[in-house]
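Supplementary Data S3. Sequence and C-alpha cells for construct A.
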Amino acid sequence: MSETKVFKGLNGLSKTVKLNNGYEMPTVGLGTYKSQAGEVEEAVKYAIGIGYRHVDCAWFYKNEREVGVGIKARLDEGVLKREDLFIVTKLWNNFHDKKSVVPKLRESLEFLQLEYIDLFLIHWPFGFKETADNLPTDGAASYSDVDYLETWEGMEECVNLELTKSIGVSNFNKEQIDRLVKNCTIKPVVNQIEVSLGIGVIPKSVTKTRILENFDIFDLELDSEDIAYLDSCNKNMRISPMSAYADHKYYPF
C-alpha cells in the first residue's frame, strides 16, 4: 500500500490538544494492546510512515521491544526527529511502590530504545504485590495496599529526572483524581479512560488498511442523524471493568 497520503493538522499530519503543562499531544495515536510479536513492529513503522505521531504502549502489553524497533527504524531514516513523536507508556499494577517507579520506567525506555518518553501513566489506581502474577487470581492475597499518592511521588521523580515530559493516570474515577490533584506537586495531564466525545483516541490495529482508515478522519463530520444513532447504541457498559478486583480498596468503578 502507498504511504504517500497527506493528512491535515500538526506539520500537515495530525491535530493536537495542548496539555496543562503546555506540551502538545496528537489526538489520534496508534494503540498497541494485544498487538502480537511479528506484527507490531511493522504496524508502528507503517503508522508513522502515513503520519501517526502518537504511539501508545504499556509494560503490561509485553511488546515494547518490538514497538521500539519500529520507532527506531523510522528515526534512523533521518526524516523525523525524536521530538516529532509522542510516545506513551504505563506503569503496571505490580510496581506501585514508590521505589519501583523509576526503575520500571527505565526498563521501558530500554525496551523502546529511547532516552525519554512524552507521557507516563499509572495504568490502574489499584496495585498488586510485586511478587504476584500480573493478573492475579488468588484475590486479596495478591493485593498491594500502596496508596496511589505514594506511586505518584515516584511518577513526579520521573519528571524531575527528565525520563518523561508529562505524567498522568489511566482508569481513575473522579474522586481519585480530585484526591490526587489536592495532594500532588505535578498535576496529571490526562486520565486515559474509555471513549468520550472530544478527546484523543488510540485505536489499535496491525492491519494497514485499518491503520489508514483510523487516521483519515480530520475532514469527517457527523450530522444529527449520525449522533442520534450513536446515542441509541448506549448500553452503559464498560469494556474493561477489571471487575475481578472490585474488592480492592482502590478499585475505581
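Construct B, processed identically:
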Amino acid sequence: STVASLSLLPPSSEQLSGGSATLACLMSGYSPQGVMVSWEVDEAEVKDGVLTTTEEEKGGRYSRSSTLTLSKARWEEGEVYTCRVAHDDTSDLATFRKSQCNV
C-alpha cells in the first residue's frame, strides 16, 4: 500500500528572513501504520535537523509529519529537497526544486 496523501511544503519567505529554513513533509490516509521518513538534499541523506512526529490514527487511517530545519546558508546551497516515505515494500517521494520557485 502507498501513502494516500504526501506533500512537501517549502520554507516561508518570512522564516528565511529570520535566518533558518524549515521544510515540512505531510503524510496522511495510509494503513497500516509504520511509515518511515527520510530526507535528502541533492540526493544525499540528511539526518541532522529532522523531527518526525508520532503517527496519529483516525478511522483506521494514519497520518504523520516530518520537518527538516536547515540554516539559511545550507538552504541556499541546496537545490533539490526530497522527502522519502517508505511503507511496507513501497516508497514514495515528494520533491521540491528551488528553481521552481522565486523565494
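The longest strand covers residues 20-30. The mean pLDDT is 93.
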